[in-house]
Amino acid sequence: MRGDHTGGVNGAEQHDVPDGSPDLPFGALAPAPRDEVPPLPAEPPVDDGVRRYPSTIGGAFYLAVLAVVAVALGIVATGAWRTGVRWYGGALLAAAVLRAVLPAKDAGMLAVRKRWWDCFLLAATGVALIFLAGSIPDQPL
């Protein structure tokens, strides 16, 4: 009889299928079995008011590169876009050199991919920015 409703996901009825898993409506996710759920990662340390510093020399260099990029964007915003873009490209070239010379364990956030790939992408982008800043002709206003 239709009058007895069994509940289920979003008001839809559930039926047992031969393998024992519930028949869920389209789009519903079945819960993972208990033994397959990975444990949660350890909780991050609680902020105890102590100032944290970069844990590697690469982290400090990363912050320095980030500061130079911020200065470069400030220079671009004031109207001297060629100079600002050259500073930006120079910061990327410096990051490429730092990534090339720092060991992997000390590279910090400069290490994103393999060393050669990081160096190539940073250097290519830096060279391209410097080249384009010097080669784009002045445009009339």
How does this structure look, described?
This protein is mainly α and 141 residues long. The protein has a domain at 57-135. 45% of the residues lie in helices and 0% in strands. It contains 3 helices and no strands. The chain has helices at 57-77, 81-101, 115-135. Helix 1 runs antiparallel to helix 2 (81-101) and helix 2 (81-101) packs antiparallel against helix 3 (115-135).
Descriptive tags:
141 residues; mainly alpha; 3 helices; 45% helix; 0% strand; extended
Radius of gyration: 28 Å
Strand content: under 5%
Principal-axes shape call: extended
The run of helices and strands is HHH
**Number of DSSP E strands:** 0
Average pLDDT, to the nearest integer? Answer: 78
Give the proportion of residues in helices. 40-55%
Largest sheet: none
Topology:
Layout: H1 57-77, H2 81-101, H3 115-135
Helix pairs in contact: 1-2, 2-3
In short:
The chain is mostly helical and 141 residues long. The chain has helices at residues 57-77, 81-101, 115-135.
